[in-house]
């Protein structure tokens, strides 16, 4: 995500970082060339076409671009809302666990049923509080979800730009899961879902030992269900793109316009045909490119969501809830980009 | 659903699979013909019409196409959201059942009231866990819903393209229901609803034997209600289409435009009238066709939702929750189509 | 509602049933006449107006029509969503009642407080299950709501087209209410609300006799509240139409356009002025008429919602839940119309 | 609110009541004058401007008007939805109270803590049922909310058109509150909020005397929270208008257009400039005026919401629930206006 | 926020305060200059360009401006809705606490676990009611959220216009937190979240001492979760702006239009080119500026939300609930601005 909150007039006029001009430069130059060709071959006496019929194509382009842009922005914004909900749900989970379980109930109190805990490992002491274990599994879920989403996105690529992303996410995630869960998490087909199931197994443990009553279990399960909703919505966004024919219709209609309209404009615009066509191409392809990047909000292109930074926010919230030291928030890089 | 996540510039310019060009080719050729006719009969001295009045028709077409496209896309997206919710709800159901029932409570504990279970059949042992039975009925509900929706869609067809679809879905569904339920499911007028009712009958059984308390029953019923909401919304989408007159208005106004506008453009465009009219027809009929396919998101046309693949995802989630081996996810065919 | 799910190209071009052409024919002919008048009185030397200033009116019309059409479609779709929710809620109510009350708890167990039951009447035996009574009151609520909504709609008419509608609905409704409730239902100012209150009185009876606990009562009340929400939303839709000035603005601006524009077009279009004006009138008044019919989704015009068919679906679901024989679903008439 | 559900063609063409023509007549006449001036000073040889550049202004106006109209309509419709929710919530409150409290539990049973009840007053007998007291406080809340909203709206006026409105609402409200609450209600800074707090104090009383359990209290509080949500949303709508600059931008751009465009049209339209400009002004200012009235849905202009009629509906529902005689619904006045 | 509820015709035509004219004056003057330059260098015989091709740019600008304006308005309105929800949730929290805890349960009853209370300080007596402490922490949360949001906004500025804002908010917030919480609140990385956690710790305390049951705790936690949702949504709005490339596309396309279009209009408009270009610039840059201010609803520019006034409303509601004297509401300053 590009983070430049208060740009000045000149930054807005000449900024390169954060602009999509670089990404569409070849297309803009192509429009320059067709404009130049139209200027060179046209004659004032016998113009190829009048411009008026092009209003029909203009109507179609504005319809297609407008629709696709709206649809993609709404996908992007829904993706951001879901990750915002992930932050809220993890905080709620920690608050609920602390309220109903307190910070004293530990593994010793509820036992370990169906879960392998290496009791000899000092890093997963059985005295760890259950509230903290369940809440940390929420953080674990966030990291695994980040990895899963980027993995879905990468798998469609011929050359993944950064294949270590999902692996990184799993490493981050395992820091927040008790040692005994590592194997079952790593082997799961749907890793984030497995994290939620493991959290629920602790709730069941607490119920079985009557540490909490069914009301409290209902409240904790409600928070886990909310995390599950976020995951389901993100999976939907990353597997169901805007139907493919839209991008074809937009793309092809703009190509028609950029190639044909200069021949209709050359009589009116003369030597200015090429730059004018380039400006029109900049606006049309620019919006098309912004829409394309926002269509898949969980990728790693400049406009995609800063899921790593959000995961850090989630870590901080849960750590603070249990009085642990939190890492500082992630900052954007020199190109104003925050992932 | 067409699955081509990262198309290149040339794929977008020349792709055939996933394009709707093939579907509307006859209409585009028809526009070529009217354009050719207009070019042949027009005379520069006495044009039939000026183009200007056609802006009124252009306004109407952009209004109709824009509205219908938005309405149909929202239907398609709501359909996808509902199936995404189906995934979420089935996972929640499994998590809730495991938490409140554990994996040990079995048919032996709660008895079998009002449900015929063939105890001699080794495939439906009475020792099967209730949590697994209820969760599997969620998977069963998904398959039955898929069959029901495709059945509603097919019933409007003169020649159903693949009449075995709904039957397939029932076969898949019955794998996830205890043997004793097969007959009542098969005879039900509304099969998915019957699956939910059967799941609720197990909850009642657990209540009657005091295996769970009313709080836990409330939680499980809540998940069943969520599945019921998905079903109701899908039934609504498949029985209440965008009002019929819209597609008439769109269709007829485009026909008027495609037939009449060339006579107004022939003076300006000359020999280019026919290809230009074909391009305009491609954009208008293209959007119309995309909208038509998305209007019924539960059909089996290329843009319709990949309900079979989603059902597989649901199967995987529930199987993993009970430690069973899951089948691999469905993959798109050579034409990039995933159903 | 018009039900023609898979129309062919020719059906879409020439269909009469389901088209709104018949409803707006007088207006289209009126446009023909003004077009003819303009053609007859115009002279090529001294045209009345240029067409260009009409773009301002065109902007206004597209704004008004587009807005009104969106608003009315959203009303229609919200109406359909509410009735879809009615289906979902009634099913949920039956499932909840069966789970918490089972099918054995009967009037004999809870007594009859404050409700007159004619115990001598064989059709309302005191051994009837409470779950069935409460669920049937949900069906009763659906029929009464249908009657109430159509009654509100009819009351604005000079000549009600079919005054027996609401009465029919009450007859259908009373079949699903115990005999003892008939009088209080018939006398209620707000009949559907009374049905919900009667259902709640049975819940209170069960509470008072400790047949269920407060958790179960909370769940059943939740389902009744959902039915109440549907009712409230439908009452809102049927009493608060799109503000009246909008339809005036749309109507008058189209009239201005249809009357004046031909005089600006006659110079360009000559003898084609009249048919062209008729086509423009068809598109503008066509959209206006579709919007008008959808504005009141609970009326009995062709585009209005098929509330009777939905009530039949509700009946079927509840009957199946209690093992009773259900009637077949309603089918559209020869004009493809399903009410 | 204007109530004319089934207007005929002629009513729509010539209606005065319910039209906003009267409100914008001065502006339409102003447009006539500028059109007349343009006609008088123009000369065919040397027109002031060409009309083409005005398309840029037309784009801006359609953008501004379209946006502002949508925003204001959504405010109006949200206001109506909230009041519809108020109806639903009050009915739910009565149903919930009757179910959990029955009609027998009275002040005698729960005592009167912290609330002054004049026991000598025959109109507030201590034998009154608690269910009825709490439900009536819901009606009281509706009336107080109506008064509060109209009071916020009036306070911005130089000359309040009917200053007795809020006072009337308070009088209506107090009829539904026990005598002992009158003083604390009248003195509260936020009267509707105080009504909800008083209702909650009765719930607390019931809890303290163990008349109900915490589940029942939770259900009743949920209904009170829903009423609180409606109130909060209405306060938001009435204090946060569409940002002021929008109405300036719309207003000023229309003024520019109405003043300048005639000078561009006079060459084309000649003597028809003045009426044509008036028609354009009617459409633009008409939409602007409709938007202005809908922006503040809780005022007392013709398009504002019929809050008094809705309060009467609420009264009826609660009275029927307790078997009391209800007043007839309010009817629109001769100008088809229902407030 | 600009507060001018009932402006007259002349106020709307000539108002300065609340207009955004001042903010965009340099850009309007720049448009004057380019218009003047175009007028001076143009010649009637050889115009630079025809205006017609500019319709393509006009389409792009209307698309960009329309989209960005909608997106920003929705952000602003969502921000306002969230703060409206904050008001509702705080009122609900007070009502819930009073109902389940009453006003008598005090620190003496539940003890002070894990929280340092300076018992020698007369301002935080241990006899203070728990209901009041928890509710006041809701007010505290509101102030801290206000400070946090303005802090995020300020941190992007080169010169913060009023750096004391967030500090002020913390001072206001601490008035509503018990003394013993001051240090942990001040040191928290996420202060508002810490306030909610402290409130939950009191709920846990009440649970541990069995002052309330788990149902009541569930209800209070639900209200805290709602406050947490508001906070999460506000953090999302303030950290995820509309993607940066949009403002570049809008800005640059307007600049192109303002610089180039005069050369196409000079032939038609002559001496009126400069003022006409200024009017067009006013409308385009005006909308751009309104959108820019609304994009960040939590800043301190004139159109930003009046968070201080809303916090005062929240204070009033909670104070009234506990019978304390409330401060008067904040009023707009002379420039009609309310922050």
UniProtKB/TrEMBL annotation, chains A, B, C, D, E:
Location within or outside the cell: Cell membrane
Ranges that cross the membrane: 20-42, 48-67
Pfam families xref list: Bestrophin_2
A GO cellular component entry from the record: plasma membrane
Sorted UniProt keywords: Cell membrane, Ion transport, Membrane, Transmembrane, Transmembrane helix, Transport
Membrane topology: Multi-pass membrane protein
InterPro entries in the record: YneE/VCCN1/2-like
Stated name of the protein: Bestrophin
Keyword flag Ion transport: yes
GO molecular function, one term: chloride channel activity
Species classification: Eukaryota, Sar, Stramenopiles, Ochrophyta, Bolidophyceae
Residues forming coiled coils: none
Coarse class of the protein's main subcellular location: membrane
């Amino acid at each position: 995500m590009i983070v430049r909150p208060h740009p000045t007039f000149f930054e807005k006029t000449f900024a390169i970082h954060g602009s999509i001009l670089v990404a569409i430069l070849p297309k803009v130059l192509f429009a320059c060339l067709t404009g130049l060709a139209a200027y060179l071959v046209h004659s004032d006496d016998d113009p190829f076409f009048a411009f008026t019929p092009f209003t029909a194509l203009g109507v179609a382009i504005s319809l297609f671009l407008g629709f696709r842009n709206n649809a993609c922005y709404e996908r992007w914004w829904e993706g951001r809302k879901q990750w915002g909900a992930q932050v809220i749900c993890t905080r709620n989970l920690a608050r609920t666990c602390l309220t109903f379980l307190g910070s004293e109930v530990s593994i010793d109190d509820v036992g370990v049923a169906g879960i392998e805990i290496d009791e000899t490992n000092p890093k997963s002491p059985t005295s760890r509080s259950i509230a903290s274990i369940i809440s940390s599994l929420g953080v674990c879920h966030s990291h695994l979800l980040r990895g899963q989403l980027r993995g879905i996105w990468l798998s469609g690529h011929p050359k993944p730009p950064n294949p270590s992303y999902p692996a990184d996410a799993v490493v981050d995630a395992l820091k927040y899961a008790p040692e005994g869960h590592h194997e079952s998490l790593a082997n799961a087909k749907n890793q984030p879902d497995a994290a939620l199931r493991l959290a629920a197994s602790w709730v069941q443990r607490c119920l079985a030992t009557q540490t909490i009553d069914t009301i409290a279990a209902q409240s904790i399960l409600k928070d886990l269900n909310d995390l599950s909703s976020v995951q389901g919505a993100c999976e939907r966004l990353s597997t169901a793109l805007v139907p493919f024919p839209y991008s074809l219709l937009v793309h092809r209609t703009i190509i028609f316009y950029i190639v044909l309209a200069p021949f209709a404009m050359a009589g009116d615009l003369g030597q200015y045909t090429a730059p004018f066509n380039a400006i029109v191409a900049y606006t049309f392809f620019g919006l098309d490119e912004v829409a394309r990047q926002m269509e898949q909000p969980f990728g790693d292109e400049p406009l995609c969501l800063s899921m790593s930074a959000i995961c850090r926010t989630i870590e901080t919230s849960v750590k603070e809830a249990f009085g642990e030291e939190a890492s500082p928030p992630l900052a954007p890089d020199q190109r104003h980009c925050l992932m």
